[in-house]
Every structure is written in structure tokens, then in C-alpha cells.
Amino acid sequence: SRTENQSAGQVETFESKLLADVPGDAVAFLAFHGGDALDKQLEQLRGEAMAQGALEAFERMLGLKIDAITALFKNEVALYVRAGTPFPEVTLLLEAPNEQDALATVDSLLMQLTKNKLAQPCHAPQEQAGVTVKCIGFSSVSIRYAAFDGKVVVTSGAQSIEEIRSGGPRLTDDDAFKSARDAAGMPDATAGFVWLDFEDGLPLVFGLAEAAGGSDEIPAEIRRNLEPLRS
Known about the structure:
With 231 residues, the protein is of the alpha+beta class. Helices cover 40% and strands 22% of the residues. Strand 9 (142-148) and strand 10 (151-155) form a beta hairpin. The N and C termini lie far apart (42 Å).
């Protein structure tokens, strides 16, 4: 019936828990909820011979079951970006009811993905804000990850874990974020959302582009057109 079809097609909504962990100076934030859709998509793939073969090859390559990886994204997933030097800081937050299992999966996944990338353990504190932290170092950036308070954090920020655990200013209290949220009429529960702070974020993007290709890479007309944007 039409009612049944509408019910089956309804998008699951949620109220973000991880937003409350995001520092107030973030310039970008996104959140979504994997829900049961991931399991259904995986089940469909396993019903196709070619896809099943690809999944098995992927599992052999990583030494992990696909179910363990998709389980990381079954609850809320959030990502935020902050200004940093020499690159912006990027932090991934994963809601994890069983945080130690999730951390073990993240640990195995990162070890496999970086084993041929000249990565090595960081010379960094193994504890931050009372939390055990693991770290993988590259030539210009380090990736830190830890589990606490029902979530797993993976970040390129040296102090991000400490800042998440602190009682510092949060994005939910930021005037620009609150203004954008009110203007959009965004409800507490959504199917997911993306927020971008153009006022503070675009200079960051321009700076990276210029460092990579020179100031003439950003036409003046684009700068003028983007200048009035706020978020």
C-alpha cells in the first residue's frame, strides 16, 4: 500500500550527540547516522557474485571483516575541520557503544592502511587528558586516535583529544553557527547535515591553494563573489 511504501522510504532522523564535542572555532562540520541502511546495503552486495568476490578480496587485503568496518559507521559519525599549521586539523568522531571493540577495529584498519606509507609510531605523549592515545607519524602530519566517553576519535590535531575533553567553548555556542541554524530552520533531529563557515574557512582554503600553486590561482572575481558569504 502507499502507506507501507512511504514508511519503508522514510529517512531515519537523529539528534546529534557528537556536535556537543566540537570546539567553537571549527570551520566545517558534518554529521550523519549509518543506521540499519549499511547492513541492508551490505546484504544486497553479498547477494551479487561479483560484489561478493570483491568484498572477500578487500577483507583479505585488510585482514578485517567488512562487518567490523561498517559497524564503525552504524551509529552517529561526525567530522569537523579547524585551522591548523601547516595544514587544517581534521577530526573524525565515531559514536561507539562498545568503544574498545571500535578502537581495536580502527587500530587494525590504520595499521593496514599505513603499513606501506612510511608511517611510524609518533614520539608523542601516550596519554592526554587522562586518555590513552595511539599515534602514527608521517613526514608532515601525525594521526592520533583514542576511545573514551562512548566514542572513538581519530584526529590530525595535536591537542584535539584534550580539547574535546575540556570544558572549552563549543560550536553549539558559536554565534555564527546558531545564526545559520536558526536561519535554516533546522530542527534538533535531522537525517544529517553539513555546516560550513565561509567567513573564516574560505581564507584557510585560499591560503592552501596559494601555497600549492601561487596567488594567481585564485581569480579576484571569485574572491569578490565569495566575500559576502557567511555560512
